Request: fold
Amino acid sequence: MAGLRIHSVLVTGANRGIGLGLVQHFLGMPNPPQWVFASCRAPTGQQAQELQHLASKHRNLVIIPLEVTDPASIKAAAAKVGEHLGGSGLTLLINNAGIAKANLLDNETLEDMTRVYTTNTIGPLLMGQAFLPLLKKAAQGSPGSALSCSKAAIINMSSSAGSIEDVYMWEYGQVASYRCSKAALNMLTKCQSLRYKEDGVLCVALHPGWVQTDMGGSGSHKPPLTVDESVQGMLKVLSSLSEKDTGTFLSWEGKVIPW
Reply:
């Protein structure tokens, strides 16, 4: 992580699991970001207590209310982040918020498919659009032209469950709505990488591994990875990303995952 010099970062879905783990690790860096924005749907709710406790101890942590399926909420969050940043930009946007419905293919419904796709794919699309001006500002204020996470970047939290070639762990759970939403997120990441390269913004889809979280560990099998192990691995990957990596799909260990 020595190569990671981040002025500001926004993590969505930051009240628990991987999102909370990311926030904790950013705050614990030897040179922590000047601003860590942690967003979630209900910042004052029961599920955000640990986040609230962290905010009481770290002045650089700001909790932002955000519903990634609501364009008005996203716009308000972008405005609030912009106010805190003053004249500087947002270095890193991590689209981590996501949902899954544990359905068999035969039981998938219009409602579940729509809800999962809206959160997991359309949310990151709208977030990228809304925060692009702040990301561009960060890129413009960064010395050098090469893309990196220390300059400006969008990291979309994907899953190897969305790999059409791998179809990771089909036997464990069919979850077609989740798989389809992540496959679409991968394409969105590729599209963002092509469009935002001219603005100096690196874009990568990242698979965090199968992690022991409320979402990842809800079945009878225990996931092999702890949140800490996953987050440490991902931050190491982020520190090594360069121009050649934009538009790629990588694992928490930095390995290329087939589309």
In short: The first strand starts at residue 8 and ends at 11.
